[in-house]
Design goal:
single chain, about 625 residues, alpha/beta, Rossmann fold, Serine Threonine Protein Phosphatase 5, Tetratricopeptide repeat, DNA Cyclobutane Dipyrimidine Photolyase, subunit A, domain 3, six-stranded parallel β-sheet, two-stranded antiparallel ribbon, 8 strands, about 5% strand
Amino acid sequence: MVVVVVVASLALFALLAFGPFSIFYSNPLVTCRQAEQVPQLHFLASRRHRFPATKKGEESCLGDRPLEKDSNAITRGGNYFQSMSMASSSFSGSGNALMWFRKGLRIHDNPALECASRGVTGGGFLYPVFVIDPHYMEPDPRASSPGSSRAGLNRIRFLLESLKDLDLSLRKLGSRLLVMKGEPGEVLINCLKQWKVEKLCFEYDTDPYYQQLDMRVKDYASAARIEVFSPVSHTLFNPADIIQKNGGRPPVSYQSFLKLAGEPSWASSPLMTIFPSLPSVGDVGSSQIVEVPTLEELGYVDIEMELPPFRGGESEGLKRLREAISNEKWVATFEKPKGDPSAFLRPATTTLSPYLKFGCVSSRYFYQCIQDVYTRNKKHTSPPVSLLGQLLWRDFFYTVAFGTPNFDQMRGNKICKQIPWNDNDELLTAWREAKTGYPWIDAIMTQLHKWGWMHHLARHCVACFLTRGDLFVHWEKGRDVFERLLIDSDWAINSGNWMWLSCSSFFYQYNRIYSPISFGKKYDPNGNYIRHFLPILKDMPKEYIYEPWTAPLSVQTKAKCIIGKDYPKPMVSHDSASKDCKQKLAAAYELNKKLNGVVSEEDLKVLQRKLDATCDSVLNPVHSHSSSGAKRQRRS
C-alpha cells in the first residue's frame, strides 16, 4: 500500500536570523512533468554521502561531492524543484511519502503537492498534516515589549482561517487536513519513522529558520535513506540561480537584479494544476491529531474590536486576485508612488500581500495574470513602479536576504550602514502604542494594531518617523514591531524595507524625509483617515486635524479633545528632530566612508557621545498652544 503523507508545518513566521548560511545550499531543479518524462532524474537526500541507487548497478549522480559546492542548475521549464542531490531512478509510487507544508497553503500551483499526489498508486493514502509551532505563538500582547518576532492576534487569525479553507478544499477532493502541535522537527521526524516514509516533499524556503530546520530534517532523511523533493515555488526565481549568475554575490540594486533575472522559464507554462481528487486519509496510528484550533485554544484573547478586512485562505485570495485583474486599465496603469495611503475603505492596492506571504495565492500565477493583461494592453507601466514590478521587488529582497549573512541585523551585515541609533525605549513605546502626538503617525499605527495591515506609503511614513526622520530609534526595533503585528510580515521583505527606509542600505538620500504633517494632508486634507482610526479627534476642525496642538483651547474644548489630556502632545518637534537626525546620519555616513564600512562598536560609541553633545531635540516636545494659537511647524 502506498501512503503519501502531507505535513504542513508552522515553523511559524521564521523571522529571526541564525547566522550566516551558504548561498549554494539550494541546488538542482526539475519539473514534475519532466520527472515523469525523464525517469532517470531522481532526487535522493544526501549532502555528503554516497548511497546505493534504487536500481541495481546505478549510483548517485553527485557521488561524494558536497552539495554546497555543486551549483549547476537544471532548469527545464514548468515547476522548479529544489533538492539535496540526484540519483538515477524514477519517481514512482513505490513507498510511503510525506509532504510538508509550510507557507504554500493552497491547492493551485503547488508542485510539491502535485508530485506527492502523483506518487500515490494502488489505492495509497494522503495524510495532510499541519504542525503548529509553539515557538511562534505569543498570545500575551504585552509580551512584545518593546518588540517580539512572535505572531500577534491578527496574523494567527489569518493563519487559522487559511488552514480552515485548505481543509475545506482538501475535503472536496476526498481528503482532509490533520493538525498536529509541537516542535516541527520532532513532529516531522516522528511521522517519518511511524509511517515508514520513503519520500519527503515540501516547498523550499530561504528563511534562516527554515534553512536550519530543513537541514536537521534532511540530515535525518539522509541517514534514513529517504528521498527529498523540495520545489522552489514561493518565489518567481530561485535566489541561488540569481546569485550564481552574479558570480556568487547577491545583487544589491533592483536594476542589477532585473538584468540577472530576465523572464522566468515557467512564464508560459500552465500552473493551475487540476486535481480531480486526492487519495483518502488512512490510519494515523498513535499520532495526536486535532482539528484546526480556535484562537482561544491557542491562548489568544479575541478582543471584540474592528475586524481586519482580510479573511485568510486560498479561496478569498483567488477571489481578490480575480477582482484586481478584472480592472485591466488599473493593472496596466498602476504606479506605486501614486497610491493613496489614506484610502482605507477601498485601498489603492491589490491587498494581496497577506495571501502571498502565506502562499494562499501563488506569486507565479499572479505574475502570469499580470502578463496576460499586459499582452492585451500594450501601453502599460514598467518596473520598478508597475504592478509586475512589485512582485519583482519581492523576489529582489528574497534574493539579497538569501545571499547576505546577518541580513536582519546591522552588526555583521556587509550591506548595512553602521549607525549609532539610540536605544530609547520610551520613544519606541510611544511610537508603537500610537502616542506620538502626531495624528497622521498615530492613525497609521492604530490601523496596524487593528488590521495588521496598512498601505505601503503609510508604512514608509511611520518607519521614517521612528528612524531617520524624527526619533532616531534603531530600525531593528521597528522591524520587530512590524514582525509581530503585520499579517503579511515577511522576514526578507520586512528587514529589507526597514534598512531601505532608515537609509541603512539600498537608499541613501537621507535628506528626503516624510513629514508627519504635510504628507498625509496631501492625500486627505479633511483628515477622514485620522477621524476613523483616532475617533478622539473626529470633531477636530480640518485646519487643525493634522496639528491639533495648534488649535486654540476653545476649539479643543468644542472638539472634546484637550491636547495633553485627551490626546498627547507631540513627543518631539519635527523641525528640530529631523534636523538633528540629518546631522547624525551625515556624521555616520562620513564615519562609514572613512573606515571603509568596517566600523566597530567602540567607533559607534565614540560617535554617539559626540552626537549626544550636539543634538538634543529628542524628548523636547512641542507644547500645546493657548487659545491665542501659535505658529505651526514648518513642513518638510
